[in-house]
Amino acid sequence: NRQILLASRPVGAPKAENFNLVESPIPKPEQGQMLLRALWTSLDPYMRGRMSDAKSYSEPVPVGGVMPCGAVCRVEESHLEGFAKGDLVMSYTAGWQDYSVSNGTMVFKLDPQMQNPSQALGVLGMPGFTGYMGLLDIGQPKPGETVVVAAATGPVGAVVGQVAKLKGCRVVGVAGGAEKCAYAVKELGFDACLDHKQDDLAEQLAQACPQGIDVYFENVGGKVFDAVMPLLNPHSRIPVCGLIAQYNATELPPGPDRLPQLMRLMLSQRIRMQAFIIFDNYGPHYPEFLKVMTPWVAEGKVKVKEDQVDGLENAPAAFMGLLEGRNFGKLVVKIADS
Ligand code: NDP
């Protein structure tokens, strides 16, 4: 059983030395447990937080522990009622390893006929659910309004933008580089997409949002938020989903301190800013999300892009790339064929 462990806590951006690939015997499931074989493993930004021992919404991975992740798995052996050998499942507690033992907690059965099981990690899984609920429940987009989202070609941002288009909004994406921006406009149907690596992002954003911004879906923080702030309309909504621009930061950004400016803006514009952690806030809504999103994906109303990496041994490098925008689409790692 190959496993990738947290070797040490990163300071700043994670490095190869923070991960350790080890071999251990395949674990044996007991009564009330099952053995899962990972087929597709998910790499997501939240894992950076789990590598650190700073205060957060969930416990850090202990040094020497298996890196956490969700994975699409095959049930290899089952002593657990409701699950049989051969079942295809989504396990949210699989970890960066070939095999895991589960008691069924946070494990969901998948349709064995599912054409692209890896989509259970992206558009039909945690990230897609995040974009959908955060946009609709907190963002409350109305036809004709302007919605802005960064990390626009990733699994959260792509769902936010495409669902906002389906709701009749003007959608402006922000992404890293010309290729991602072209994809957001041509394939995902965004009205515009701006490259955050350009120095004049704030001017470009003002031009792309002539009616101001009604919903800013916050995925990144940093200079994208600085560019968004002056454009926020009265009664605008900000679902605070993620702050990836800060995840590797070791100190506060350079001044001046913009908190007083933000507080004044929130008051004068009566802005609603609300953070959420997807399963914590919205867990019971997962089936209803799937009921809507599954046909949208099947009919091509919501398009999907995956960045597929081959082999567990390549997960650390791919994960480090994710934090720097080197992924293009939902990052997944193929572990085994079946
Ligand atoms: P992505 O696959 O989109 O990957 C992250 C992307 O962030 C990168 O590809 C890069 O895209 C962008 N990025 C990285 N650094 C910066 C930076 N300094 N400035 C601007 N953009 C940057 O990730 P997801 O779609 O999985 O996640 C998007 C966000 O949603 C993350 O912040 C994540 O933590 C959050 N999230 C929150 C959840 C919740 O429950 N609250 C659940 C799931 C995700 P680009 O090259 O385009 O800049």
CATH architecture classification name of the largest domain = 3-Layer(aba) Sandwich
Structure ligands = NADPH dihydro-nicotinamide-adenine-dinucleotide phosphate
Shape type: globular
CATH 4th-level superfamily of the largest domain: NAD(P)-binding Rossmann-like Domain
Which range does the strand content fall in?
Answer: 15-25%
**What's the CATH class of the largest domain, please?**
Alpha Beta
Q: Which series of helices and strands comes N to C?
A: EEEHEEEEHEHEHEHEHEHEHHEHE
| Number of helices, where a helix is a run of at least 4 consecutive DSSP H or I residues | 10
Strand tally, please? Answer: 15
Computed Rg = 20 Å
Counting structural domains, the number is 2
Low-confidence stretches: none
**Distance, first to last CA:** 16 Å
Structural class: alpha/beta
The chain-level mean pLDDT equals 97
Quick tags:
binds NADPH dihydro-nicotinamide-adenine-dinucleotide phosphate, alpha/beta, Quinone Oxidoreductase, Chain A, domain 1, Rossmann fold, 338 residues, six-stranded parallel sheet, 15 strands, single chain, 10 helices, seven-stranded mixed sheet, 2 domains, globular
Q: Topology, pairings included?
A:
Blueprint: E1 2-6, E2 19-23, E3 34-42, H1 46-50, E4 71-78, E5 88-91, E6 99-102, E7 107-109, H2 126-139, E8 146-150, H3 155-166, E9 170-175, H4 178-186, E10 192-195, H5 201-208, E11 213-217, H6 222-228, E12 232-240, H7 259-269, E13 272-275, H8 278-282, H9 286-298, E14 306-310, H10 315-322, E15 330-334
Parallel strand pairs: 8-9, 8-11, 9-10, 11-12, 12-13, 14-15
Antiparallel strand pairs: 1-2, 3-4, 3-6, 3-15, 4-5, 5-7
Helix pairs in contact: 2-3, 2-9, 5-6
The structure holds NADPH dihydro-nicotinamide-adenine-dinucleotide phosphate.
NADPH dihydro-nicotinamide-adenine-dinucleotide phosphate binds at residues 44-46, 126-127, 130, 150-151, 153-157, 175-176, 180, 196, 219-220, 222, 224, 241-242, 244-245, 276-278, 322, 325, 327, 331.
